[in-house]
Design goal:
Blueprint (H helix, E strand, L loop, with lengths): L5 E6 L2 H12 L3 E6 L4 E3 L4 E3 L2 H8 L4 E2 L6 H8 L5 E5 L7 H4 L6 E5 L11 H7 L4 E8 L9 E8 L6 H24 L32 H11 L6 E6 L2 E12 L13 E4 L2 E5 L4 E9 L5 E2 H7 L10
Length: 317
């Protein structure tokens, strides 16, 4: 039966590639892949292809990259005569004219335990919140934001120092497996969609580049959660006054220090203790392991101190 089911896949990121790869390796028939247009990114503002596009090209899958999900895109999807549309981190809202096309509906893969963390960036938001558990949801797409009926869910424990990249990789794997287990049951009519509990709904906050600026009066645990969430983007950073010049420092790798109470240290003060470079926060301290001056290479804390001996004792802001 699976080989007769025509699927249109819509996704963009590395997370989405895991779903596409799982479908490609299964008996399902991928009629077409839709992904977002190439975009410019990085220091050189270089035109980059979405991860899904790279995979689709490698496997010679029919590929569409519409600038907008407009009437033409709708017609392109209708022409595929899909039985099912699978969406995973496409990055744009799918209009009703598209998600109503297939007879078996449009299924979305969302990396959170809905109704928690609806919206974009649920993985980063779960880390920001300090959550110890997350998961993935297979759901039916409808006109609301990630509020469609649930077909399946699977929980996952978040590791204490896990970053967005690490958690995303683990969630992509369990999501792909759950998707392949769910599809045959759904197509066979063996799943009764479950409505979401609106009393438990929460929404992702929008993440901006300036959110990486650290406020040292916050608790060490809260700052560490920001590091975990923002490690790849937008990164966490602070400013250091060095010989009368304000310099931005990206904190590339940090760790939580053991709880301590030292009122002699100022908030944001950098100090050396037990062969480690540390910084005092509003409550607790953090260990600085790798740092990067703006437009410079990443350095471990010992090499950084060797080149900037006046860093110890300074106060970051």
């Amino acid at each position: 039966m699976a080989d007769k089911i025509k699927i249109v896949f819509m996704g963009t990121s590395d997370f989405a590639v895991a779903m596409l790869r799982a479908l490609w390796e299964s008996p399902f028939n991928i009629a077409a892949v839709f992904t977002r247009a190439d975009s410019r990114a990085g220091r050189g503002y270089i035109l980059q292809e979405p991860a899904v596009k790279k995979f689709a090209k490698t496997q010679k899958l029919p590929l569409f990259q519409p600038e907008k999900l407009d009437e033409k895109s709708t017609e392109d999807i209708k022409n595929q005569r899909p039985d099912l549309i699978i969406v995973a981190d496409y990055g744009k809202i799918i209009p009703p004219g598209i998600w109503k096309i297939p007879r078996h509906g449009t299924i979305n893969v969302h990396p959170s335990l809905l109704p928690e963390f609806r919206g974009s960036s649920p993985i980063q938001n779960s880390l920001l919140s300090g959550a110890t558990e997350t998961g993935t949801t297979i759901m039916l797409l409808d006109e609301s934001l990630d509020a469609g009926a649930i077909l399946a869910q699977e929980k996952l424990t978040i590791q204490p120092a896990e970053t967005t990249e690490e958690l995303s990789l683990r969630l992509s794997r369990i999501s792909a497996h759950l998707l392949l287990r769910t599809l045959p049951l759904w197509l066979a009519g063996k799943i009764n969609p479950r409505k979401q509990d609106e009393t438990r709904a929460s929404f992702c906050r929008m993440i901006k580049k300036e959110d990486g600026k650290i406020i040292w009066s916050r608790k060490a645990a809260e700052i560490f959660n920001r590091y975990r969430a923002f490690k790849n983007w937008p990164e966490i950073y602070a400013f250091w006054m060095d010989k009368g010049k304000t310099k931005r420092i990206n904190l590339k790798k940090i760790a939580l220090d053991k709880p301590r109470d030292d009122k002699k240290l100022r908030t944001g003060e950098v100090y050396w203790e037990k062969e480690k470079l540390k910084i005092q926060t509003g409550e607790g301290a953090l260990i600085l392991e790798e740092l990067q001056m703006e437009n410079k290479k990443v350095a471990d804390y010992k090499n950084f101190i060797n080149g900037h001996k006046n860093f110890i004792g300074s106060v970051l802001n």
